[in-house]
Amino acid sequence: MRKRIMYILGVFLTLVCVPMGVNASTVDISTGTDKIDIDWDPNVEVTKQDDVYYVKLTGDVAQDFIIKSGEDVVLDLNGHKFLNFTEACEALKVLEGGKLTIKDSVGTGVVTQKEASTYSAITNLGTLVIESGNFETTQNFYVVRNEGNLTINGGNFKSTSNTSLIGNIKYVNDEGVVVTKGTPVMTINNGIFTATSNAVKNGANCVVTIAGGDLTSTNAFALDNLADATVIGGTLTSVNNSAIRNQVNVAGAASNSLKVSGATLSSAEGKSNYSVYDEKLGKDVTDNYVVVTDEDGNQTVIEKVVEEKPNTDTTTNNGSANTTNTNVTNPKTGDINLLVILSLIGASVVGLRVISKKIALKIN
Fold first, then answer.
1. Per-residue pLDDT at 362
2. Out of 42, 107, 111, 162, which residue is the most buried by the measure of CB atoms under 10 Å away?
3. What percentage of the chain exceeds 70 in pLDDT?
4. How far is CA 209 from the centre of its chain?
5. 3-state class percentages of the chain: helix first, strand second, coil last, to nearest 5
6. Cβ-count burial 201-214 (b if 16+ within 10 Å, e if not)
7. Are 120 and 142 in contact (CB under 8 A)?
């Protein structure tokens, strides 16, 4: 009976909210009057235990589901599809202070977005943990956009768009103001990531660690790093490009570092496993960098040291050949002065000897 009443209420609220552009749902309607309790949906079961909300799909749903600050939610796709309801909203959004864990107990569950959507399928501003499930899009937006703390322990991620599959970024609005609080941190322990563009993009002032998983990009890079990235495992592949790109001199970036060890890198024929792009110069500068291994066994890319070559020009100012014997060392000014002084002293000694002889002859 309660389910039917909530369903009717939900339909009523939906009819009211849609014209206003609001259809967000939450697990606790008491925390927001502009939200619909997701429990009204006949294909959703919600239980609460030890302050954790367990949301289980019993059929496909279309919701703009928001996890608010202070809420801890475990979502089980249970083999079904979770789709956004509003084109201008994510299917799943975690606000700062909220936590969402996604799993799929069946294996065929999927999180995606409808055609003409204008946001990522998932946006995280709080804490997001993905254990399993399928996550995909054909739209030119991230499948997962992380501005908080994201851990991926498994799952199948796929994008056929021209936008990176997974984005670890700090949001900057149109006025150039950084909206994201703190440092976005992403850790990938496992999973399959297949993208037309970048599989993973680590934006300026963000941190990513890749410890496992299979990351593949068709036309771009398995990892495109603009800040601090550590790769200690997994397989990173680019079909038509370099496996990893490291961007330097990025505007507004506080630091840039890339360390790779224990990972398998595979790049297109004729391409280096590492490419370097200088944002300030606006061009690829891979040829100016070299891959080295540090004392801890990490591969990294550093700029080549350009040594000054000695002047080997053998022509004079007028262009004629210089025939001076370069094996002869020309005396310095100080040496010349010394020779002159010694010569004068020698001459004086000889002169005194001559005078002495003349005097002796006169005496004799």
1. 35
2. 111
3. 76
4. 10
5. 15, 35, 50
6. bbbbbbbbbbebbb
7. yes
Which residues neighbour 231 within 8 Å (Cβ) at sequence distance 6 or greater? 209, 210, 223, 244, 258, 259, 260, 261, 262, 263
Residue 68's SS3 state is coil
pLDDT at 92 over 50: yes
Domain count, the chain: 1
Using the structure block, give the residue that is written with the tokens 């030119």: 140
Q: Which two tokens stand for residue 174?
A: 């149109």
Which residue's structure tokens are 């996890």? 67
Q: Which of 17-31, 42-56, 88-102, 111-125 is least confident?
A: 17-31
Tokens of 288: 């100016």
Would residue 273 count as lying in a domain? yes
pLDDT at 178: 79
Q: Could you tell me if residue 152 is inside a domain?
A: yes
DSSP structure class, residue 345: H
Residue 223: Cβ within 10 Å count: 30
Question: Rounded CA gap, 306 and 279, in Å?
Answer: 21
Spatial distance between the Cα atoms of 8 and 69, rounded to a whole number of angstroms: 28
